[in-house]
Amino acid sequence: MKKILFFLAFFSFFLANAQKEDCATYVTEYKGLLNEGRINEAYLPWISVKKNCPKLNEELYLDGFKILQYKADNLYGEEKEKMIDEILSLHDAFFKNFPEKNQQIELDKALVLIKNSVENKNKIYNWLEIAFSKYPEKIIDVQAFINYFRLSYEKFSEAEKTLTSDKLIERYILLNGLLDKISVSNPEKEQDYSAAQRAINGIANNVMTCENLDSYFTKEFSKNNENIDWLSSSLNTLQNKCSDLSLFKAMASKYYSLSENNISAKYMAIASLKERNFDNAKKYYVKSAELESNPVEKAKTYYTLATSLYSNEPQKSKEYLKKSIDFNPQNGRTYLYLAQLYVNNISECYKTDFDKKIIYYLAIKTAQKAQEVEPILKSYVSRFNAENGKYALTDNDIKDGKLSGKSIKLGCWINETIVLP
């Protein structure tokens, strides 16, 4: 008996080692084919490794997803469906053998169906529902957001209404709040996340009325009035078209009392604007800018101050435009607005025709900076220069007046020194 057990143990050991050697050979083979771009040919040696050494490493599965998706992209009908099923099974195997490496399996499987245009709405919906319940902060794929809300809306629209309007609003708030956060942390994809928000807003348009939102948030406010995250995301939902609700001011005040930060100060500014309390609006926008850590967002707030609340006060408007440029010198519209500010208020700051020419000269040079940082603004700059260039100091004026290289100080609220070429 002992001899038999010894033989079986030895045979198992021998077989396992033989399989490992085979796997190493097949790994070398399929890796080489992948590197050469011969992805279809890599399938058979890869499948041998997956069958005989499923616990080899994480890379086996990552390579497998690449191979199987390539094959799926080049198949049609039933063959494509079978390949997609194989991709889903590979996700299950990956989770079974490396659960710590594949913690977003529901999301991954949903995206396989979405990106392969598989119309299995129930599976996609159920997997996305689990994903957004278990690990919402880890989801960054815009298609997950759009499809989850689209399918949620379909559940709401069904005759049997398997999803209530309150639940749909809840999901709307969740998804928009998450998109705001990941947009800030992934600025290179900000346009994609903004597009996702527009898509969700388009789907939700006839449900997210101020009347519905007022009713929903009035019920929820008393339960969540100490919850900073809830207040922030709820105010974000209301700010665009429902900020004139008295509820908005109440929620903004509560949020600000719990946490004085750049976001809560911004909501207080918006609420103050709706009440036409412009002094308070100015105060809170300045506070929001001062508390903001993101320079681009800080620049946006200063630009808002300059172009709305201080648009009739050229000195203060210029002050905030300069601050905006300091924090984000790549926003061409700031230079354009500053150039227009010089032209619109020129009568306050010139005594002679020469002063007037210099101010127009400054405006032209300022507008040209807009085109330098954002070439897309070329047509706006060209139009501005065509309208105002005829009043500006010319090269002949500089030559005839022997002004080449001279520094000219402009006082008044403009307060700039111009060095002529």
Give an account of the 3D structure.
With 421 residues, the protein is mostly helical. It is built from 20 helices and two strands. The chain has a two-stranded antiparallel ribbon. The longest helix has 34 residues, at 2-35.
Reported for the largest beta sheet, the result is: 2 strands, antiparallel
The 3D shape can be described as: extended
Strand content: under 5%
- What is the alpha-carbon Rg in Å? 31 Å
Category by helix and strand content: mainly alpha
End-to-end distance, in Å? Answer: 103 Å
Query: What is the number of strand segments?
Result: 2
Strand order of the largest sheet: 1-2
What key phrases describe this protein's structure?
421 residues, mainly alpha, two-stranded antiparallel sheet, disordered N terminus
Show the helix and strand layout:
Layout: H1 2-35, H2 39-52, H3 58-73, H4 77-97, H5 105-115, H6 121-134, H7 142-157, H8 165-185, H9 190-204, H10 210-224, H11 228-238, H12 246-258, H13 262-274, H14 278-291, H15 295-309, H16 314-327, H17 332-344, H18 353-373, H19 378-388, H20 395-400, E1 407-410, E2 416-419
Antiparallel strand pairs: 1-2
Helix pairs in contact: 1-2, 2-3, 3-4, 4-5, 5-6, 6-7, 7-8, 7-9, 8-9, 8-11, 10-11, 11-12, 12-13, 13-14, 14-15, 15-16, 16-17, 17-18, 18-19
Q: What's a concise summary of this model?
A:
This protein has 421 residues and is an all-alpha fold. It has helices spanning 2-35, 39-52, 58-73, 77-97, 105-115, 121-134, 142-157, 165-185, 190-204, 210-224, 228-238, 246-258, 262-274, 278-291, 295-309, 314-327, 332-344, 353-373, 378-388, 395-400, and strands at 407-410, 416-419.
